Amino acid sequence: MLEPIFFASAALLIYHYVLYPAIVVILSKCWRMPRTIPLDAPPRVSFIVAAYNEEKVIAAKLRNTLELAYPPDRLEVLVVSDGSSDGTEAIVRSFASRGVISLHQAERRGKTAALNRAVEHATGEFVVFSDANNDFSRDALVRLLSHFVDSGVGGVCGAKRIRQAEGRQSSVGDGLYWRYESALKLAESRIGNITGADGEIFAVRRSLYRPVPEYIINDDAQITLDIVRQGFSVRYEPSAQSFELASIEIKDDFYVKVRMVAGGFQTIVENAGMLFPMRSWFAWAFFSHKTLRWLAPLFLLIAFTSSAMLARQQIYLLVLVTQLVFYGVAAIGYVRIARGALPLAVYVPLYFTAMNLAALGGLIRFLRRRQTVQWRKAQR
Asked: Residue ranges per domain, the chain?
């Protein structure tokens, strides 16, 4: 039984990391790029920023937002800083003369509750969600909104870019990951739907927004699924870009990944009737892109254990040694990264291993029901 178990786990890993991306990219070549033309008249847009203790970055975020290439009289800026105990709220109020609206309240109920409250106050035909620690390219709003000329489009996600910066351990890993994600999202979008929008830069028809239950962790994933469930598509626009710095330490990325994966399994359970059985292209793509990614650490553990138990055979011994070398290099990277930048050949195994360990932690946290909508903030 060990050989079939090994081959099944290895096949799922190869399918997720190699075959599915290749299949989607090839299939996407058969579709024309969606039509994107500016709307006849700029619609009213509500730009929503959820901020919790963001005094270090919120002023720069608001300046960036107010300088976007979009008519000021058609842009409503709302900041929800619920529970902030630093100077975030005072900084937001200092922008009131420039039209920024503060929706602060003392109680911290989590980002999902904050977004629901902000959308209730929004007056725009479209809402654009963003984070406090990222900047938009100047034409990002125009690029995002150009897709809504198609009445079948319910949401548009822009591209997340990582600024390279010395002293930030996650810059290289995050940069590689988001370039990979961008290519995959673009291919999925050309076929019909991306499998999950990024809340850092996400435009939505306000009429399609459904209040997200406050216990939901991954609000952007739930909003995506709600739009698709209503029969509308969610597209990807790589020219609409948001820029942010990576985490200072990989351990910050680790904790973010734990939370996101715990939220990912929650998303699957909450939307099981839509995702299983896989009767639609979206369900198949979601399983291939998202579900298998969150389950990858289990397959890696199974592949390692089964190959170790089969190591009397030369081929499995070779596979085992290859894995040991890979994880050994990752361990060396973990020990050395505090001293400075690592060679790519060392950094990639470290980052890959750390993120899969985090995914395993997310699964355990989900099964133990230990994750909440409130989380540990990364250092800015």
From this structure: 1-30+248-380, 45-246
Tokens of 110: 């989590």
Rounded Cα gap, residues 154 and 136, in angstroms: 21
- The per-residue pLDDT for range 128-155, each reduced to its tens digit, is 999 999 999 999 999 999 999 899 999 9
- Average pLDDT over every residue of 183-208: 96
- Band of pLDDT at residue 250, cut at 50, 70 and 90: confident
Which of 62-71, 92-101, 335-344, 352-361 is predicted with the least confidence, judged by mean pLDDT?
335-344
Diameter over CA atoms, the chain: 74
For residue 95, the tally of other CB atoms under 10 A from its CB is: 19
**Is there a cis peptide before residue 4, judged by omega within 30 degrees of 0?**
no
Q: Which of 103, 89, 16 has its CA nearest to residue 59?
A: 89
Query: Could you give the angle at the alpha carbon of 128 between the alpha carbons of 52 and 185, nearest 5°?
Result: 100
Flag whether the pTM goes above 0.85: yes
Which residues, 6 or more positions from 295, have their beta carbon under 8 angstroms from its beta carbon? 12, 363
Q: Give the DSSP letter string of 273-310.
A: HHHSS--SHHHHHHIIIIIHHHHHHHHHHHHHHHHHHT
Angle at 364 between CA 361 and CA 366, to 5 degrees: 110
CATH of 45-246, one of 3.40.640.10, 3.30.930.10, 3.90.550.10, 3.40.50.10860: 3.90.550.10
> Cα(188)–Cα(54) distance, rounded to whole angstroms?
34
Are the CB atoms for 45 and 74 separated by under 8 Å? Answer: yes
Q: What is the DSSP string of 307-337?
A: HHHTTTSHHHHHHHHHHHHHHHHHHHHHHHG
Supply the pLDDT for residue 377. Answer: 57
Burial 277-314 (b: 16+ CB within 10 A, else e): eeeeebbebbbbbbbbbbbbbebbebbbebbbebeeee
